[in-house]
Amino acid sequence: MASSYFNMLREITLADFKLRYYDSVLGIVWVFAKPFLMFAVLFTVFSFLKRFEVANYAWFLLLGIIIWNFFSDATSKSILNMRSKSEFIKKIAFPREIIVYSACLNSLITFALNILAYVVLALLFGGPLNIGFLLLIIPATQILIFATGISFFLSVLFVKARDIAHIWEVFLRAFFWLTPIVYPLAVIPEKYRTLIFLNPLVSIINTARELALYNTIPPLFDITLVFGVSIVVFVLGIALFNRQSKYFAEEL
């Protein structure tokens, strides 16, 4: 039973990854093009406009974008999966959570390839690579758990109201600028930082940068807290999803 479950998950994940770029001229190149084109535009603009100093700003920005895109892509893809696989859900009995897991694993593959590209560029252009980079598995795991939990909530909401796809798209645009991706935490006034840290992505991105760029391990309390929040979001998300999934075939 377990083997058939994981076989189905693997097949759907890989099929979705291949089909995602099948019709495009550049194909899998888009895996790298999206974050790196985004980086090129933002780096060009903020190199002229920024009023703050950040060591290794290019790598600071690129790493933040790669991590953000993981979250954005996983959550958006989960909603898209609920739409594209609606006929599948109506006609075939299978564990519905596979739809969300496959979307998030699909985004994890993209994330891994982007990190690999980051390493290659760092080697070619003398970017910061140190032993702390190996610990990126910590923030990567945090964001995978958190994004999967959010994806479960979004998938349920999408079944109830299709407008959630458009609402989430707008939310992500605003959320990007409210998250310290193109700017450092230091530019945020002290009195607002507690509010900013209510967003788990802030701690996740900050942890990744501290490890990869500055070879510094953030406080264990901060890392543990984000893991705790991510796990709570995941557990609540999958509990809601499992409770509502029996109605999906009727509501889609």
Shape: globular
Please tally the β strands and state the result. Answer: 0
> What does the average pLDDT come to?
89
Instruction: State the domain count.
Output: 1
Q: Beta-strand percentage?
A: under 5%
Rg:
19 Å
Strand count, sense and barrel status of the largest sheet are: none
Low-confidence stretches: none
**Structural class from helices and strands?**
mainly alpha
The percentage helix is over 70%
**What is the end-to-end distance?**
27 Å
Report the total helices: 11
Q: How do the helices and strands follow one another from N- to C-terminus? A: HHHHHHHHHHH
Protein name: ABC transmembrane type-2 domain-containing protein
Transmembrane segments: 21-48, 54-71, 98-125, 131-158, 170-188, 220-241
GO molecular function, one term: ABC-type transporter activity
Membrane topology: Multi-pass membrane protein
What does this structure look like?
The chain has one domain. The chain has helices at residues 2-20, 29-49, 57-84, 86-91, 97-125, 137-160, 164-178, 190-196, 200-212, 220-244, 248-251. The protein contains eleven helices and no strands. The radius of gyration is 19 Å and the shape is globular. It is an all-alpha fold. Residues 26-244 form the ABC transmembrane type-2 domain. Keywords: Cell inner membrane, Cell membrane, Membrane, Transmembrane, Transmembrane helix, Transport. Its main location: membrane.
